[in-house]
């Protein structure tokens, strides 16, 4: 029986690629410790994204691989998820108690952006992260309904200064809908809307959050610019349908985030295909492959492709989005994949950022 050493264990780990970081654990810098005691091996890994539902299977796969080494009788692989605060736009101070801000945006309305934001927040929470969601759609807030928060619910006020977010389904929720009458339209000009958004973001007493998901209004106007200039956004997710008109506006959304130096983490394609509930026939009602083309055009990832499904709509309208209503269902699993990819892309964006040059001043 040959002796086992750290190099042999690392060689085994390098043969397996983390599907979200697209690197092996060693190259990705996930290895925190490798201990070899005779024929027993203990490995400690640390993931920088929320992966509570993934890490157990990942650990078992790596454990079996290590136990296949000659000279290893048993192996233990422990994986922890430790989410750090990542870089946002330069010279913008961070939010108190919030590590990472994710903007979910679309170029036009009606593409399922709010539904995506709600399910993304729930999926991140289900992966073990501490999550909040801010409904920044001042004119048409919907997150209160989606999270089953009763009409007329008002947030508590702390120290006469802070709004206390309302917790529902394990997520902290804040929305302009909690401060106004649901039947009263917000007839506000741009500066008033921007001011209201900043108050919601900065005067909400968020808990210690790993991720704050912001459900953006459609378009590329005042609110989007205010967010880019005043809120430290780690990355954005663009939501579209395969329809040519939706893709045209989604491109504008991608370009806007690029101009304000907010990384685009990827694209989510909604309503990609409709499956007839009677005969099972699949039909691409809004076109085919649009999300993939958009992602390819801008060199970003197609994070998820979701069907046109009545259940997604019914569950969101009923105050319990798909991830909460059918957590083990096929569609919920797509949202879980989306959550892990979004978290991992934030980690990768920072790793890919160019290092700033060091400037030195001498007396010569």
UniProtKB/TrEMBL annotation:
One of its GO terms (molecular function) is ATP hydrolysis activity. Residues 6-77 form the MIP18 family-like domain. ATP binds at residues 107-114. Coiled coil: none annotated. GO terms for biological process: iron-sulfur cluster assembly. Pfam families: FeS_assembly_P, ParA. One of its GO terms (cellular component) is cytosol. The keyword ATP-binding applies. Keywords: ATP-binding, Hydrolase, Iron, Iron-sulfur, Metal-binding, Nucleotide-binding. InterPro entries: FSCA_dom_sf (IPR034904), MIP18-like (IPR002744), Mrp-like_CS (IPR000808), Mrp/NBP35_ATP-bd (IPR019591), NUBPL-like (IPR044304), P-loop_NTPase (IPR027417), YlxH/NBP35 (IPR033756). It comes from the Bacteria. In the N-terminal section; belongs to the MIP18 family. Belongs to the Mrp/NBP35 ATP-binding proteins family. HAMAP family: Mrp_NBP35. Homodimer. Binds and transfers iron-sulfur (Fe-S) clusters to target apoproteins. Can hydrolyze ATP. This is Iron-sulfur cluster carrier protein.
